[in-house]
Amino acid sequence: MAKFDHLTLAVANWIRSRDWYVQHIGLKIEFELPERCTAALQDESGFTIFVQQSDRMTGPIGIALYFSVTDVDVTHRNLSAAGVVFAHPPQKTFWGYGAELRDPDAYVVRLWDERSMNG
After folding, report:
1. Residue 19 host element (H or E)
2. CA–CA gap between residue 103 and residue 86 (Å, rounded)
3. What pLDDT digit, counting tens, does each position of 6-57 carry?
């Protein structure tokens, strides 16, 4: 069985995207390649998202990133208090219970937690 462990997102500004994912989602910087306008961002399980600046963005159509958090309601409250704008607060959706926001390049970011999803 293969293990999915890297994903590249084409972004308009790699530094802005790097900072957004670190500050709001809690990813850590694994490494950076400034000469390639790329940052490797890693979650707590070792999955890496590369944010790579590109003039040839095809757009975020059809892409959604799902992040499991400890408590989606608390995470939503904390991020909202910090000024992060959500498309919708935690609620029942077609994919389960969670909150949805957009990153700086309009990629859909969905936050959920196991307790709420299983409840």
Report:
1. helix 14-20
2. 10
3. 999 999 999 999 999 999 999 999 999 999 999 999 999 999 999 999 987 6
What residue spans define the domains of the chain? 1-56, 59-119
Q: What is the total residue count of the chain?
A: 119
Topology of domain 59-119, CATH: 2,3-Dihydroxybiphenyl 1,2-Dioxygenase; domain 1 (3.10.180)
Under 8 Å CB-to-CB from 108, ≥6 apart: which residues?
60, 63, 64, 65, 87, 100, 102
Cβ distance 68 to 117 under 8 Å? no
Domain 1-56 has CATH 3.40.50.1860: no
The answer to whether the 1-56 and 59-119 domains have the same CATH topology is: yes
CA angle 108, 43, 98 (to 5 degrees): 40
What's the rounded Cα separation, in Å, for the pair 29 and 50? 10
